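Example record used in the benchmark description.
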Amino acid sequence: MKTTTILFLLILTHSISCTKTNFNTGIKGTVEYGQGDCMPQIDYESREYKKYKGDLYFIQKEELDNSDEQELEQLKKNSITVKIKRGKLSTELPVGTYVVMPEDVYQYSEENTIMIKTGEVLTKDFQFWKCTSY
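Model output (structure tokens):
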């Protein structure tokens, strides 16, 4: 019994230490995702979002500004990628300005452009919508 308890505590300690939630420079928030019709007119009130699960890319804004949309896949490969589960975002990021995008939505707007400053943890929520028809 004593060995089992010690083993359990060691595993628990290891799993807690692998999750980094205490940092000084980065971002925390929620990410929601939805998809549907964008015709004939965008009806924002009827959109339904779910908690996002997947990769979220933090692309350097300057690099995105100096490229075209065809180079987006290469930019994603070179960017900071964070796996999101149950819509929870919490990650340490280097200082800089980023455009945040999920895997299958190209959105470059003020709403998903962030600035990370030294010694600050930005709190920001994101909603991404993928149009399935135009």
